[in-house]
Specification:
The chain has about 260 residues and is mainly α. Helix 1 crosses helix 11, helix 3 runs antiparallel to helix 8 and helix 4 packs across helix 6. The chain is globular, with a radius of gyration of 23 Å. The relative contact order is 0.13. Pfam families: BPD_transp_1. It is found in: Cell membrane. InterPro entries: Bact_Polyamine_Transport, MetI-like, MetI-like_sf.
């Protein structure tokens, strides 16, 4: 009897876990299933399973252009965020720098500010400096949002770095720049690669900031949103499924790199 009550919390947690997992996966499963439907509307039952919608998506010029545009924005914002995030992380762990806690808090602030508030603030900012909406504004917004994630990952890696590595490089005649590129940067590589992949995923998935900062050229989330306004169809489900599969694969690879970096 006592063992039964002792196992009750574990059973409850297991049930809650599976219920939450079902809550997350069931909508995604239904979305993927509807992408194989042979009719023009999204509803059960599914008469025949077909790949025609995927073929149509891959021939959709607007979809392909939106994908390339999103990838370009993601690449630019990731490069900028990685550069800034690495520099901020180095500043936080550097000796003799005052206010490191404040620097860390300010660097991580964009990650905790609600997306809507962040988007409105960025829109006011670009209006103040007379920056037009469009590609540059989107890259700015995505960079600001991605920097905290690079900072955290780089900082975690830097704090596990033996201090004698840089000291040994300096004893051999290397200055600060050479020591950074020959010692620190290679040590940071696994964390930075993982952080860059997360930045790419954040950028491609960012709808709110793109909505407020974008121009007439749609990114992938904006294109899907515009198509949804005209009504749901299996073609939209096929688009979303392709994006889901690619982002999930990239995200799992980033998690693998992060775990490997922690074990080294």
């Amino acid at each position: 009897m006592r063992n039964m009550f002792a196992d009750a919390p574990r059973t409850s947690l297991t049930a809650i876990y599976w219920a939450f997992l079902l809550y997350l996966l069931l909508p995604l499963t239904l979305m993927m299933a509807m992408s194989f439907k042979d009719a023009n509307f999204v509803a059960f039952p599914i008469g025949e399973w077909t790949l025609d919608w995927y073929a149509k998506v891959m021939q959709d010029k607007q979809f392909l252009e939106a994908c390339l545009y999103s990838v370009m924005i993601a690449a630019c914002s990731t490069l900028a965020a990685t550069t800034l995030g690495t520099w901020i992380a180095m500043l936080i762990v550097a000796e003799g720098i005052k206010g490191q806690i404040i620097i860390f808090a300010l660097a991580c602030l964009p990650a905790v500010v609600p997306g809507m508030i962040s988007a409105i603030s960025l829109r006011i900012f670009i209006s103040t400096i007379d920056m037009p909406t469009g590609t540059a504004a989107i890259i700015l917004g995505h960079t600001v949002h991605a920097v905290p994630f690079v900072v955290v990952m780089a900082l975690t890696r830097l704090r596990s770095m033996p201090g004698n590595l840089v000291d040994a490089a300096r004893d051999l005649g290397a200055d600060s720049v050479v020591a950074f590129f020959r010692v620190t940067l290679p040590y940071l590589k696994p964390a930075l690669v993982g952080g860059m992949i997360f930045c790419v995923l954040l950028s491609i998935d960012d709808f709110v900031r793109t909505f407020f900062l974008g121009g007439y050229r749609p990114t992938l989330p904006m294109l899907i949103f515009a198509k949804v306004q005209g009504g749901m169809s299996p073609e939209i489900n096929a688009m979303a499924t392709l994006v889901l599969v690619v982002t999930a694969a990239v995200g799992l690879y980033a998690e693998y790199l992060t775990r490997r970096a922690r074990t080294r």
